[in-house]
Design brief:
Layout lengths: L3 E5 L3 H12 L3 E6 L10 E4 L2 E4 L6 E3 L2 H8 L4 E3 L4 E5 L2 E5 L3 H8 L6 H11 L9 H26 L29 E5 L3 H8 L5 E5 L8 H4 L4 E4 L3 H4 L9 E11 L9 E3 L9 E4 L12 E9 L6 E2 L3 H18 L3 E3 L1 H5 L5 H15 L1
Parallel strand pairs: 1-2, 1-11, 2-10, 7-13, 11-17
Antiparallel strand pairs: 3-4, 5-9, 6-9, 7-8, 12-15, 12-16, 13-14, 14-15
């Protein structure tokens, strides 16, 4: 008799695990408390424009295995993401590169060596890099830090960057060239029909059943005993009823707006680091997917907040200490066939490709 597996959460992690384990002959029940598939990647067509309900999702990876796996479930189109950030009335390029320096300071730097030399005149000498603020100040100095990074980070995390650890510094690269792309991965693309369609195709398998609007925490112990294995992708502290304390998460509120113009802004995403602006960025969805020609566009203003649907683990020491206690319990539960996966289940800020890669590895381990 095939193993029966309950997977909690129908996002990319849960869908990848469901497909991988079903392909190995296991019977899968995938549940989600929401009324839709794809988790925070959920998107839908609104007035001929594909709109993501929970913000921009840009797929990029260097993993051939992840890329080949996802190719089976969607047609993809090449898309290389670029970001602009508003500094006063000027739109400057992110990540920080030679173009950014030239724009901000009115210079005409031409080489990486010239940029490095310029930044040595700006960067602060900091002996120990203990925080995100230390890292940025030691790389680009006070002017760029204040204009581009400080306000955005403060709004995004609800904390001064001096209180955030350095783990998110790899999301803020400094480039010593003219490359304006936000990512440099080998594979960069978007599913042409959207992520919801991608996930739906992944779950189209005779061994997979899906139940939406199903709360895991309301299932009885007798019901759960029907399954040989349980894979949980929700918030790790909630699973343990906050035994060691609540972990901090950042959530987002989106203010969607239809604008009666062909385009609202000159880029898909524009950041607003100014603390007097309550949102962190404006997303214009029309840039992400070819649409029918429309005389309107749809934008979303993104407001970070502390309460609401959890999106991001907050990267600071207090949370690392708390999650260690939960992870110790996770090791014990694996012996009983209970596994934790995904951004919330492992309390790590995973990219989409990392979530898929880790789900593939977990499926292999479970098998």
């Amino acid at each position: 008799m095939a193993d029966r597996v309950l997977i909690v959460g129908a996002g990319l992690t849960g869908a990848t695990l469901a497909r991988q384990l079903a392909d190995r002959g296991m019977e899968i029940l995938l549940i989600d408390k929401r009324a839709h598939l794809a988790g925070n990647c959920f998107d839908q067509d609104l007035e001929d424009i594909l709109v993501s309900r929970y913000g921009a999702h840009l797929f990029h990876t260097n993993s051939k295995a992840v890329w080949q796996f996802l190719q089976k479930f969607a047609d993809w189109r090449a898309y290389e993401h670029q970001v602009l950030t508003k500094v006063n009335d000027q739109s400057v390029v992110l990540p920080v590169n030679i173009n950014t320096i030239n724009q901000l300071f009115g210079l005409k730097l031409k080489t990486g060596a010239e940029m490095r030399h310029f930044l040595t005149t700006q960067a602060l000498k900091i002996k120990e890099i203990n925080s995100l603020a230390d890292y940025l100040l030691s790389k680009v100095g006070e002017v760029i830090y204040q204009k581009i990074f400080y306000g955005y980070s403060f709004k995004q995390w609800g904390l001064d960057p001096a209180l955030l650890d350095t783990s998110i510094s790899n999301r803020l690269p400094i480039r010593y060239n003219f490359d304006n792309r936000y990512f440099t991965d080998k594979y960069q693309a978007l599913p042409t029909a959207g992520y919801t369609a991608l996930v739906k195709k992944m779950l189209d398998h005779p061994q997979i059943k899906v139940q939406l609007k199903q709360n895991f925490f309301k299932l009885s112990k007798n019901y759960l005993q029907k399954f040989n294995k349980i894979i949980y992708t929700g918030p790790i502290d909630q699973y343990f009823n906050y035994k060691y304390g609540r972990l901090e998460y950042r959530s987002l509120k989106f203010e969607f707006c239809k604008v009666n113009a062909e385009f609202y802004q000159n880029n898909s995403v524009i950041n607003y680091p100014d603390l007097t602006v309550p949102y962190t960025r404006i997303i214009e969805f029309k840039y992400f997917a070819p649409t029918k020609v429309t005389k309107h566009t749809i934008i979303a203003r993104e407001y970070p907040k502390s309460k609401g649907e959890p999106y991001y683990p907050v990267p600071r020491t207090r949370n690392h200490q708390v999650v260690k206690k939960y992870l110790a319990k996770v090791s014990e539960l694996e012996q009983k066939g209970v596994y934790f996966a995904g951004r919330l289940g492992t309390y790590r800020y995973l990219n989409m490709d990392e979530a898929v890669a880790e789900a593939m590895k977990l499926a292999e381990r479970i098998d």
